[in-house]
Amino acid sequence: MTSSAELTVAPLSLEDAPQIAALLTHLEAVDGIVETFDEVDVREILSSPGMDPAADSRGVRIGGDLVAIVWVGVGSAADAEGFHRAEVSGGVHAEHRRRGIGARLLAFAEDRAAALMRERHPGAPHHLRISGGVETSTVRHLLRREGYAPARSWLDLARDLPGESLPETLPPGVELAPVRPEDSREVRLAHLEAFRDHWGSAPIDEERWASMWDSAKSRHDLGTVARDAAGKVVGYVLAAQYEPDSLYVALVGTVPAARGRGIARAMLASTIRRAAEVAGLHEVTLEVDSESLTGATRLYEGLGFRRRRERVTFQKDVPASSV
């Protein structure tokens, strides 16, 4: 641990979960760079596969107050272009910016990502990715100065519940059902097919998938799975609940061979109808790649989703020779 008269830097720990959650809530309000997380979510992040908080995270305190955080994670597989992904998350409280804290934490994250790459994927190039939040976020100035550039934009969409009624349409030869806990393996295999052609996507290993699947915030009862006549999973909607009145659609996928048949629309409509019957749920939200070639944005807007805001992912490419 290093320190000065008023500032200390140390790894984050599970005991820090309440302060981390409070800071993330602040960063969401100021920058729109993260979703809203509570203590349960933070503990899941710090305990996720491949994460070692003592080595992979840092927190900055002034007095006893946590004013800045960062953590970094490296994926287990390369994307279609042969790059691995290093995700950097965190931020600095708005009242403590312009003191070099953000640059210091970003430098730590880059060094740690390089070390993880040498350890897990020696000789391979990687992307450093971090949220640049909404257009008014001041974090973008730091990212551009440190060599990052906008790589992709994302739309946050929302639909009121119950909203306009959605007809029950079932594509021929397809059966829909709520997601069951035991569907994990089959849905993962469908996900690997469905996201193979998505920007920046890399195969997710069984351990990380299980961590996501078993999250305390998962709502399998409101998710939907589509099976063909042979019983194979050809599509899925996975849902989670991070806020008391809102259902979040975490993943939507249809395997390439089954696209163009209205399966995604039918699955989403099923999830929305069931969510509308849950007391206390007032909206459904999701995130979509604004540059997706699958027509996803048109699909969602046709189901009554409306644009809430746009966020941007920033990226820096690190060639293998630099690792």
Describe the structure.
The protein is α+β, with helices and mostly antiparallel strands and 323 residues long. It has two domains: 2-147, Aminopeptidase (3-Layer(aba) Sandwich), CATH 3.40.630.30; 157-311, 3-Layer(aba) Sandwich (Aminopeptidase). It contains nine helices and 13 strands. It has a 13-stranded mixed sheet, sandwiched between helices. Strand 3 (57-62) and strand 4 form a beta hairpin. Helix 1 crosses helix 2 (39-46). It is globular, with a radius of gyration of 20 Å. The protein starts with a strand and ends in a 5-residue tail after the last strand. The relative contact order is 0.16. The mean pLDDT is 94.
Structural domain tally: 2
- Fourth-level CATH superfamily of the largest domain: Gcn5-related N-acetyltransferase (GNAT)
Distance between the termini: 25 Å
Low-confidence regions: none
Overall strand count: 13
Task: Give the SSE order as H and E letters.
Answer: EEHHHEEEHEHEEHHEEEHEHE
What is the architecture of the largest domain at the second tier of CATH? 3-Layer(aba) Sandwich
The largest pleated sheet is described as: 13 strands, mixed
Q: What is the CATH level 1 assignment of the largest domain?
A: Alpha Beta
What is the SS-derived class? alpha+beta
Mean pLDDT: 94
User: Which strands sit side by side, in order, in the main sheet?
Assistant: 1-2-3-4-5-6-13-7-12-11-10-9-8
Q: If you consult CATH, what is the topology of the largest domain?
A: Aminopeptidase
Query: How large a portion of the residues is in β-strands, by DSSP E?
Result: 25-35%
Shape category:
globular
- Please report the number of helical segments: 9
Integer-rounded radius of gyration: 20 Å
Please bin the fraction of helical residues.
25-40%
